[in-house]
Write a structure and sequence with these properties.
mainly alpha, three-stranded antiparallel β-sheet, 3 strands
């Protein structure tokens, strides 16, 4: 999906262009940031249209009337601002992959060897005339690190600390407009997670963890691509192992705690993560078949890497299916099921009897005090 969004989709809307002799490789490399700009342009355009609709502009009212009729017939209440923000937040996630790829190449170096295969110098990946380390390489490195920090680290940390007291203490140093903007951003992405208002735990911090896992997986994919190019097999294996462990922990956490408000959202989130891991397996097998033939790995080692994916997918699928069917009134009957249900019923009866006895004692004390 990310590859389609970043490559195939923009091939259909970008006009043909020719890079002249006066265009450097760095300037051509900046074209990779176009997918990141596109969702922000859509969001700004949508905000302008919503503002015009709020001011009762006749043309905008005519265009929005069919949607208003459809929503009223279906009895669907839509908050336009939140709906637009949630719709384009997924596009921002997809565009982050392209931005991460472009920024990673801004901080990547290439080794230059002499005839005796001894490392001579390191040069900038996009411009071989720039050596590393040097003052000419520093602007590219700082640009990559700073932009990566602002589009990846800050949103993830913000989503994690927003429900905590730390954010409330830090928000005192922000202006009212900035607090409103951060609140709109966090509430839109936290809307499907349990907020703890109805007796449950607050799982809104998992939104930041989910964003961090997605971005970290994207970064690991880029490391994998560059390591594939240089045939560094053991580094590829270690990168893939770290990524699979993070993915397994997050899938198990989501499948066990069920952090979303609705069962459908829990199922959707878990299966989205499962599908993400399966596609990661397919990608790794494709890489192994295409690039790693010069460094063949044992089939048992490949099976060892893929087995956790399959086990976690089966376990999460079974758990979610059981939870969904139980929610709709279907009871799983197996060995020990009746005993477990009877023990649960006996526990409920004991709890009710203790509560009734407590009420009786309290009533007797009140009667004694009244006399």
């Amino acid at each position: 999906m990310c590859q389609f969004w970043n490559l195939q989709f923009f091939k259909t809307i970008l006009p043909p262009f020719c890079i002249g002799d006066n265009v450097t490789g760095i300037q051509a490399h900046m074209l990779n940031f176009i997918p990141a700009i596109y969702p922000f342009v859509l969001i700004i355009t949508s905000c302008i249209l919503m503002e015009l609709h709020a001011r009762n502009v006749k043309m905008i009212g005519i265009l929005s009337k069919p949607f208003t009729i459809i929503f009223s017939k279906a009895r669907i209440t839509v908050v336009t601002g939140d709906a637009v923000f949630q719709a384009f937040s997924s596009l921002i996630f997809l565009s982050n992959t392209s931005v991460l790829s472009a920024l990673f190449q801004l901080s990547y170096t290439e080794n230059v060897y002499n005839s005796t295969t001894i490392l001579k110098i390191k040069v900038f990946y996009r411009d071989p005339t720039v050596e590393w380390p040097s003052y000419k390489y520093l602007p590219y490195l700082l640009t990559g690190v700073l932009v990566l920090f602002f589009i990846s680290v800050i949103p993830s940390v913000l989503l994690c600390i927003y429900p905590t007291r730390v954010y409330r203490h830090l928000s005192r140093f922000l202006s009212a407009r900035k607090r409103l903007a951060i609140t709109a951003f966090a509430e839109a992405l936290h809307s499907c997670f349990k907020d703890g208002l109805n007796g449950t735990r607050d799982y809104r911090a998992l939104a930041g963890a989910q964003l961090f896992i997605i971005l970290l997986s994207a970064m690991a994919t880029m490391f994998l691509d560059f390591l594939n190019h240089h045939n560094v097999t053991m580094d590829v294996v270690s990168t893939y192992t770290v990524r699979i462990l993070l993915w397994m922990m997050f899938v198990c956490l989501v499948s066990y705690v069920k952090p979303c408000k609705s069962a459908i959202a829990n199922v959707s989130l878990s299966f989205h993560l499962i599908l993400f891991g399966i596609l990661d397996c397919v990608r790794y097998l494709w890489w192994y078949d295409s690039y790693a033939r010069t460094y063949p790995l044992e089939l048992t080692f490949i099976a060892t890497l893929l087995t956790p994916h399959i086990l976690v997918a089966l376990w999460a699928g079974y758990t979610l299916t059981k939870h969904t069917l139980t929610r709709f009134g279907y009871q799983f009957h197996g060995p020990g099921c009746k005993e477990a249900l009877s023990d649960k019923a006996n526990g409920v009866r004991r709890c009710l009897s203790r509560r009734n006895s407590g009420y009786q004692e309290l009533q007797e004390q009140c009667d004694t005090t009244g006399r």
